[in-house]
Amino acid sequence: MLKLRGGIAAIAFICLSGSGHAADPLAVGRQMLAEDNPGDLWVLRGEKLFHEKRGPKQASLEKCDFGLGPGKVEGAYAQLPRYFSDTDKVQDLESRLLTCMVELQGFKREDIVKNRFGNLDRMSDMEALVSFIGSKSNGLKMSVSLSQQKEYDMYKAGEYIFYRRNGPLDFSCATCHTENGKRIRLQDLPNMTDPRQMQAVVATAWPAYRGTQSTVRTMQHRLFDCNWQMRLPDLGYASDMSVALTTYLNRSGNGGVIDLPGVRR
Amino acid sequence: MQTIKIALLCTPVLVALGCASYPDQPTTRNIAEKMVSEAYPGMPPVLVKRSGQDRSQQICSKIGEMTLSQQEAAEVAQAARTSMQYPASGKLMGNWKVGAKLAYDGGGSRIRGGKVEKRKENGASCSNCHLLDPREVNAGNVGPSLAGYGAQRGNSEAIAKYTYEKIYDAWAYFPCSNMPRMGHSGHLTPEQISHVVAYLVDPQSPVNKK
Q1: What is the pTM of this model?
Q2: Domains of chain A as residue ranges with CATH
Q3: In angstroms, what separates the C-alpha of A175 from chain B's closest C-alpha?
Q4: How does DSSP classify residue A194?
Q5: CATH 1.10.760.10 for the B76-208 domain, yes or no
Q6: Which of A92, A119, A145, A231 would you mutate first to test chain B, the one with the most B CBs within 10 A?
């Protein structure tokens, strides 16, 4: 009898796990990647770059303030975007890094922007730095807060832009991301108006290692790529529009436990 | 009296904090529209224009649970009606085989490095969002399944016309639906749309085979 029960349990288990894979045929590969995440290499490279004296001013990023004090990266990403008084702007991680690389290290803004996205021939310092700093919030909850007027403005502008239809295909972010269980071809689309789903999203993206692109991509890249699919022009790197959307979305994911970099298709 | 006292006490605090709060709708719009207008530095103006909105797109950008008023819906539908154009040949049902290629082609008109991709014509991107051929696995579900579309509706002139108009500008029938106004925006030509119509309604099309 015991044996029989065990057998039934085993069959039930097989059926359950089987149906799980049928619903998400890519789950096995995704799990394998998550267990052995190539993104960890970007974290290591980012850590090295962070402490290295670089640029015309031969300075490290150890004096860069990500909102919690100069050089303090632990927990910084979990509270971004936020307002910075020195720039009088709300900034996400990438626009803040851009500020520090220009101001502290003396790099030219246009050079960093040109190399913002890596490819197989050339790695991006930005993608590595974002991986490192993002990973320094692992285990913490996303907690974007609004207190400054410019933070409120950013959040509301982000929400407005999320629903704003434009381009030859009349798309907004909302076209694809306001219903449950939707897909573009086989690609699952999170419902970004559901806090639970947003918590899951912000937990592992972005930065995340993209298997199809063999590199870690950042939030700025994700938004740039969405714009491309929407038939809009190249979204300006670290533009206010990109930071507004990031503020709206990250805050919608408040409470999600961060585990970066994630892994994506 | 009590209220005045509280107000007097709170005012300096609020001023110090800058009375930070959510901006109202018109302010939000101004801030956000300025951001959009500055979001594409160095891009050719003709491409930046794509990020502008026509009147219908403005109406169809409701935030969250805000709903469309009847008047707004009528205005969007009217604009769609007015924009409708048909193939010079007058033939609304083209070649389903040409339509099949278009339906599974999700490319065309995308911009990278400030340049529009070079291509003979845009794809119709149907399968990104719709199931068409019931045997196709790699189909999206943002839009309803169209498998068996013609088998269910027939291929009369009336059905062909409705289908054509639905692709040319879906907002004539469903104001502000997610369906892009494929013909209205010029993303597809009237001839291309007629081929997609054939792919949907022709009895020989895989869409209508079991």
Answers
A1: 0.90
A2: 37-264 (1.10.760.10)
A3: 6
A4: -
A5: yes
A6: A231
